[in-house]
Amino acid sequence: MTLRSVLRVRMSGADAHYGGDLVDGARILALFGDAATELCIRHDGDEGLLRAYEAVEVLAPTHAGDFLEVEAELLEAGNTSRTMRFEARRVVAARPDLGPSSADALAAPVVVCRARGTCVVPRECQRGASASRAEGGPGSGPGRREG
User: N or C, which terminus of the chain has less Cβ within 10 Å?
Assistant: First the structure.
């Protein structure tokens, strides 16, 4: 069974770091961290700690007003390490050239960033997936499991 987390987030003016309302790539990595946290909670009942990113690729610019869909997928679970893949896709593009609040819903998402990462969940913190899915408990929200 594949374990995934999907977040959808609008990049705001506060996320813009460079001229032209360009969003810093570090903001996308922070979103990858949020998705990784959800995966660790769903898998282990604990937030875990992000140890490292590897193979980070920023593939397209992201601007204030864009909506990103951020997906994390658990690839491998060791004794304490969790290897994940991340992808951020623009699903709505801001169109300030047409007006200050104009945007386009994209027919096909545009991949803006990809990465792999490793989280660590100390053995003493692992409670297992069943604990994280307890009725009303942490991790009982609307995540997505696909198999």
Answer: C
